[in-house]
């Protein structure tokens, strides 16, 4: 039998990978593999994730073993590893998009400690390798939308931040979580330019931090995080603009009052505390209605419509019920 799809004819004897856009097929395969459905066909394991343990002192390029979590796989085409690792914002290494890839080799992601502290019953200084083991690592394919108007799709590896929070046992005074990045001028040449009030700092309300989407992130594309993407551990909050996703964390602090955050302190009228992706609230310099997907920037590539909460409304809209999101931008 012949079927007509998007104006083209296909026979039913061809592989499903040819009638479905390749990336959709590949992301579905990720999901199916994770459910064990392909185990019997011998295709399981074809995603290329090796099962190595971390041994090298700096861990650079080490493979990470992770299971795809089918609940969290965007079917958009993942951005290429090259674009994800050469088009970055990491001001501790310079303000140009190419600076982090060029200069972040001075960052030393091992040994690395993260202090989990504040209004919790179990404060603890984690060694990064211990942190990698708090729960089985998951691969999740998330959209990342930057406030500057571009977006990417990234196969991250990590665990829900809620896993760490449960172990910390927050007290009744823990209303917010603050994320603090490393600020070490011997490793980060950009610190000599006082653009932001270093260390880079971000924050979430407690219920946002507990949402299963919020990812304590340690890798991407099957490997530990490259330095320029925030090695060895960062936060990823996919329904918020990218600057909420602080890199190279050294402190996770539970606090009672809304914590100061770097971009909000720099320009409070431009960068709100919430910073949920919202196509109807423009930044003073950038429309937020549409976005340019990195890798699709050919001359005729149309811009994409930006989705409310970056497309994660089903999971997060309830967090903001009754709130004026124009005021709380
Ligand atoms: N974290 C730190 N410590 N320093 C930064 O400059 N930039 C933010 C965020 N986290 C930044 C940071 C911004 S503006 C964005 S868009 C994302 O990281 C970019 O993440 P990526 O380079 O992995 O795509």
From TrEMBL:
InterPro entries, sorted: MsrP, OxRdtase_Mopterin-bd_dom, OxRdtase_Mopterin-bd_sf
EC class (word): oxidoreductase
Reactions catalysed, as given in the entry: L-methionyl-[protein] + a quinone + H2O = L-methionyl-(R)-S-oxide-[protein] + a quinol; L-methionyl-[protein] + a quinone + H2O = L-methionyl-(S)-S-oxide-[protein] + a quinol
MF terms (GO), sorted A to Z: metal ion binding; molybdopterin cofactor binding; oxidoreductase activity, acting on a sulfur group of donors, quinone or similar compound as acceptor
Cofactor(s) the record lists: Mo-molybdopterin
Domain Oxidoreductase molybdopterin-binding: 107-263
Subunit comment: Heterodimer of a catalytic subunit (MsrP) and a heme-binding subunit (MsrQ).
Similarity comment text for this entry: Belongs to the MsrP family.
Name of protein: Protein-methionine-sulfoxide reductase catalytic subunit MsrP
Organism per entry: Caballeronia grimmiae
Gene assigned in the entry: msrP
């Amino acid at each position: 039998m012949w079927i007509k799809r998007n104006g083209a004819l296909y026979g039913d004897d061809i592989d499903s990978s040819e009638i479905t856009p390749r990336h959709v097929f590949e992301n579905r395969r990720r999901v199916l593999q994770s459910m064990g459905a392909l185990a019997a066909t011998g295709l399981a394991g074809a995603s290329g994730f090796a099962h190595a343990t971390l041994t090298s002192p700096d861990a650079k390029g080490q493979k990470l073993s992770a299971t795809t979590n089918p609940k969290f796989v965007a079917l958009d085409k993942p951005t290429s590893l090259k674009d994800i690792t050469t088009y970055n914002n990491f001001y501790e290494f310079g303000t140009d998009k190419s600076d982090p890839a060029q200069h972040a080799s001075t960052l030393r992601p091992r040994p690395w400690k993260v202090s989990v502290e504040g209004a919790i019953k179990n404060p603890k200084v984690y060694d990064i390798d211990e942190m990698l083991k708090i729960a089985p690592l998951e691969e999740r394919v998330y959209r990342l939308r930057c406030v500057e108007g571009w977006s990417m799709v990234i196969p991250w590896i990590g665990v829900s931040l809620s896993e760490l929070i449960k172990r910390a046992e927050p007290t009744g005074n823990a209303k917010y979580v603050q994320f603090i990045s490393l600020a070490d001028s011997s490793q980060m040449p950009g610190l000599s330019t006082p653009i932001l009030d270093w260390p880079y700092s971000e924050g979430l309300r407690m219920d946002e931090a507990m949402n299963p989407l919020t990812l304590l992130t340690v890798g991407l594309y099957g490997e530990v995080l490259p330095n320029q993407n925030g090695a060895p551990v960062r936060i990823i909050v996919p329904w918020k603009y990218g600057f909420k996703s602080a890199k190279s964390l050294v402190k996770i602090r539970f606090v009672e009052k809304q914590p100061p955050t770097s971009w909000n302190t720099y320009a409070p009228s431009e960068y709100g505390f919430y910073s949920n992706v919202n196509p109807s609230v423009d930044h003073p310099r950038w429309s937020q209605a549409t976005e340019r997907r990195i890798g699709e920037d050919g001359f005729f590539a149309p811009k994409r419509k930006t989705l409310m909460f970056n497309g994660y409304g089903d999971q997060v809209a309830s967090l903001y019920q009754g709130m004026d999101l124009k005021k709380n931008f």
